[in-house]
Amino acid sequence: MRRFFLSFIVLAATFTLAVAQDTQATQADSVIVAKKFGYLSYDAVLKAMPAYAEAQKSFNDLKASYAKELERSESEFSKQFAEYVDGQKTFPENILLKRQKELQQLMEQSLTFKQEAQQLLDKAEKELMQPVHQKLKEALYKIGTERGYDYILNTDNNSYPFVNSQTGEDITAEAISVVSK
After folding, report:
1. Is 42:140 a contact under the CB 8 Å cutoff?
2. Which residues of 19-28 are buried (b: 16+ CB within 10 A; e: fewer)?
3. Where are the domains of the chain?
4. Overall average pLDDT of the 97-103 stretch
5. Is the pLDDT of residue 7 over 90?
6. Pairing label, strands 168-170, 37-40
7. Is the Cα dihedral 103, 107, 108, 109 positive or negative?
8. What local confidence, expressed as pLDDT, does residue 88 receive?
9. How many CA atoms lie within 13 A of 31 on its CB side?
């Protein structure tokens, strides 16, 4: 009987140990590590930056210059086209052909200028905005490291329709404050 009792105790201890280990493994598998993060409206912060306003003003001034030149070019084309239409019945054929060729060249030059202007405007916008984006990136890095965030989310364009404010922090106002200095 003693032997039976001893065997029973060993068996019970083994079973208890196995159950305890299984429980620990299950608990370890279900442990969820909460990440610390911030979130903001990138566009709101960007547009609040003084450097953004300066870059936009420079870009709009450049854009207006191109628009003014394009308008002048179109006005010149319209003027020459009107002269061509007015003289169409009285011009000899070789003058008509010459005027048609001039109009064709003006139209091609205008289209070429329009395409080049758009390419130059796109490039200028990127160049003007690059330091602004860099400053914002540095500000977000600073905020993120100081607060110990694992990441910062951009909530623009409904990318994240729900962000739990108990686990994440809205840093839009702080980011605006940092980049406005």
Report:
1. no
2. eeeeeeeeee
3. 1-31, 32-179
4. 92
5. no
6. parallel
7. positive
8. 87
9. 6
